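#onboarding

Welcome to the new folks! Below is a worked example of what a typical request in this channel looks like: someone posts a single protein sequence, and someone else replies with the predicted structure as tokens. Don't worry about understanding the tokens yet, we'll cover that in week two.

Example request:
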Amino acid sequence: MTRSPQTDHNDDMIPSADRQDGLRIGELSRQTGTSTRSLRYYEQRGLITAHRDHNGYRRYDHDVIHVVKNLRRLLGAGLSIDDIHQFGTCVRALDLDATPCASALEVYEQRLRTLDTKIDTLNHLRANLAEHTKDLRQRLRAK
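Example response:
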């Protein structure tokens, strides 16, 4: 079936987010509050996928919106892209809290262990620096 010029013109009047062909990167950026640079990075790392228009523009399926929101939430919780890769398909869940995921638990526990180690190291460094500060303060007062 061929399309008439009138139909093609009307398609230009429909916001592309409402079309069947998905969201452009700028639209996805606006809807998720994520920079286009970050979206390209997520795509490069294999966390989201896009298809290309005839003109080369990226188009994302509408379900990518919740994936990007999940990514932002997980990154905001201190997880890395490598951590999130371990979630597998769990990151695609509509509601991360309502969809228990064993691989997520493993990642969370490992990240907590890593943070605990870093906190212990920082506490040790702080204690050393506090001791040196106290010692220096006392020597300066003794002058």
